[in-house]
């Protein structure tokens, strides 16, 4: 027992490292694995973890606070501003109707008014699990989607405030005066958090500049002071944590500090919260509560029906079509972050029973699976702003300044792939004019005079001398570079940024699966951290021998146009034929197929009139098989990938790219863009358009 805190922490670390990986390998959400692990290791299983442990209580409470903070941090305030009136309107619908429905369910099963209203508040919130899907499909600018995203702010804040009032009433003597006092305190407290910490955050970040460590500590301080302040005025700490997320949302943006803050929560504290939640589940009691199916069924039907009614009401009021209505319904369906947090608070306070806790867990499992599945089927048909019509010629190249010469960095490490990589870069350079920078990264040693380091540098120089010869052979300017850095990934990203690279061309690594998840993958890390697009290549033949290229396109977005631009440059250098492939569902109407063909033809005629491009639209319910079948007659397939770290609770339905690459028989190029690349490029152009350097502020400089 004297080793108890260390043992518990070691068990938790082992669980949150291994269990999600195993479940995701079988296409199951990792958070379900964490819940099951909690059941297996808890008082109703192997008794290895104890819910009464002070260590576990502390870590779980931090995870609970962190979960709600990340939920607030993930809300896009700019999108909310675009359609705030309609977002508030739909937010009101999808808050009040589920609230009323949940209250009725509570009363039907014998709960008091206070507990029933709390059950209703559990129905009212929602988690945007399907955000990665609508982002990948390029339909975020559809008004119905933007309105639903904005409504999340209203529903989450509303449900948390109802929770705060219900718990306060349960814990103390209720009176009109005490209720008014609580509400007034909430208003003042919310204003202090939202406006005070926002101003303070801007000032602190402006003064500390690049001191990321201090900025990280400041954000943590904001989170826990906000949580503490909430408890001081008599409400739950998760209310303060959520408001803190909204307050610093704009302050930290999407930079490295946000990455660090979210990373710490997603890999440590939030998984521990889910494990602790699993400790509360009594399997016999869970089976018993599920077997008495009426309460669980009422919770499921009530939630799904009320969210559907709210989406239908929005359709009528704002005149959306049926497809938009179904998408709004599916986006507002999943109940994870705020729902689980509020349920645990209500359960600990004695307001909710074990039956409600079990019913909400079932609700989470069902809606977290059903919502994204429906979104994946309904969202592809949404009509959105034609982003290709807004794209200027400058958006089709990877440069802040269109007159800038193209710089392509080529990391060289494997002599067997070096020739093809240099040749690929040379084909692009000859077409666009610029330079190739072969890069050899040597991992640093503690002692700069160590024989091992000297040997690595010599090996790097041999590779670079070969690259220079290849550059002369292909007729392009080559500037070889040796870099000593802490690791391969750091070396590639740092050197590319210093060289102001427009593109990185690198070979395909062999580390995949669980090994890659445990120990990391160079490609994944470069894609995530790079400042510019990355072309990851697996070339089975010389690039100059490629005569037919297949480009699968899911939706017409600026990202898709840039992929076609990359292919067009490569194809013109090689006189290759390009096929743009769009795969739609079998049930897609002929009118929709004809519309997609016309849009693809318009894209080609407008931006790539000189290229030999074919348009192909296939109806198939199996995307992977359709692409594999079409690739059999091609020399190269170019796929697009945008790196995005998944938050805890997000459900990965499939990894299409991995399946295609594993089975495809021809050469492959995966063109990946770093997160926020297009936003940063747009901001850079705005700065360039300033009339003179003296008009730039210090912050812009």
Explain what you see.
It is a single chain. Strand 8 (577-584), helix 25 (590-607) and strand 9 (613-619) form a beta-alpha-beta unit. The protein is an alpha/beta fold and 701 residues long. The model is unreliable at 386-397, 511-520, 644-654 and 677-701 (pLDDT under 50). Strands 1, 2, 3, 4, 5, 6, 7, 8, 9, 10 and 11 form an 11-stranded mixed beta sheet that branches. The protein is 63% helix and 10% strand. The chain has 28 helices and 11 strands. The N and C termini lie far apart (58 Å). It has helices at 4-25, 30-41, 54-73, 77-82, 84-108, 113-124, 131-137, 143-171, 176-208, 212-232, 237-252, 256-279, 283-291, 293-318, 322-331, 337-348, 354-378, 387-390, 415-432, 451-474, 488-498, 513-519, 522-529, 558-574, 590-607, 623-631, 656-663, 677-688, and strands spanning 406-411, 434-443, 477-478, 481-485, 503-507, 534-538, 548-552, 577-584, 613-619, 636-642, 667-673. Helix 3 (54-73) crosses helix 11 (237-252) and helix 15 packs antiparallel against helix 17. It is a multi-pass membrane protein. Residues 407-538, 546-670 form the UspA domain. The chain crosses the membrane at residues 6-23, 30-49, 55-75, 87-105, 111-134, 146-170, 182-201, 213-233, 261-281, 293-314, 326-347, 356-374.
Short synopsis of the structure:
With about 700 residues, the chain is of the alpha/beta class.
Question: Which short descriptors sum up this protein?
Answer:
701 residues; 28 helices; 10% strand; alpha/beta; 63% helix; disordered C terminus; globular; single chain
